[in-house]
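Students often ask why inverse folding is considered easier than folding. One informal answer: many sequences map to the same fold, so there is more than one right answer. In these notes we will look at a single instance of the problem. The structure comes first.
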């Protein structure tokens, strides 16, 4: 964020502000959705150790103290999946969910599946030894299911990008970087050709490609993070 983070934000009618930290995949979800909907918003980026930003979080998300938080005319909405639902209901075009209630429910099922299984990917990043082997196996199982689900479609919902793509966007954003740091490649083209193509399609989408950090930036960030969790003599 430029300059000092202020604990008081100035709110005007019709204004959208997004509180975030770099490179939170949860925050990216909201950035991507707002870009897809072509909505103007102000991005307020902070750092967790900055006391002013902590004050902002205490004020706008006192329950979880996490980002993202979307401020609508100063009213805070927290939790990325809740914010995404708000965005979809408020600005239905272009749609991120199917119109048919049954298809919509199926899409939401997959969103909930992806959310639940994301912990395996976290374990893949933060464990070693037996736990790591287990996490790797779990990640492979989840990827297998996703590979089947996407089939020959361009995106998970079909020809157009949708909510599940956004929810899973963190795979396209950072999983390759995390694999490079961990030193084990799971999502390889030979085993998961369809997911591999999806990553390319997702990253090349006009609303997404301008809102992606570089491999280099992410690598430096995640390497430092992993070293803080796992000392290099055990990794
Ligand atoms: N379930 C939340 C997760 C958000 C989350 O974990 N955000 C992280 C940044 S990636 C955070 O704010 N962490 C702050 C902390 O744990 O102190 C969501 O979907 O929005």
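Output (designed amino acids):
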């Amino acid at each position: 964020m430029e300059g000092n983070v202020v604990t008081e934000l100035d709110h005007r009618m019709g204004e959208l502000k997004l509180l975030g930290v770099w490179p939170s995949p949860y925050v990216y979800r909201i950035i991507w959705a707002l870009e897809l909907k072509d909505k103007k918003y102000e991005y307020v980026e902070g750092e967790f150790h900055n006391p002013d930003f902590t004050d902002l979080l205490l004020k706008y998300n006192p329950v979880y103290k996490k980002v993202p938080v979307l401020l609508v005319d100063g009213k805070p909405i927290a939790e990325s999946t809740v914010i995404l639902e708000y965005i979809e209901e408020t600005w239905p075009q272009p749609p991120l969910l199917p119109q048919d209630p049954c298809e919509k429910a199926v899409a939401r099922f997959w969103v909930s599946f992806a959310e639940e299984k994301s912990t395996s990917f976290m374990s893949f990043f933060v464990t070693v030894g037996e736990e790591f082997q287990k996490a790797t196996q779990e990640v492979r199982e989840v990827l297998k299911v996703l590979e089947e689900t996407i089939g020959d479609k361009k995106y998970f919902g079909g020809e157009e990008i949708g909510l599940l793509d956004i929810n899973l966007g963190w795979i396209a954003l950072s999983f390759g970087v995390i694999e490079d740091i961990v030193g084990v490649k799971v999502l390889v083209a030979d085993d998961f050709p369809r997911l591999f193509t999806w990553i390319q399609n997702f990253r090349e989408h006009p609303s997404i490609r301008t809102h992606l950090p570089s491999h280099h930036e992410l690598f430096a960030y995640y390497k430092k993070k992993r070293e803080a969790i796992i000392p290099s003599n055990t990794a």
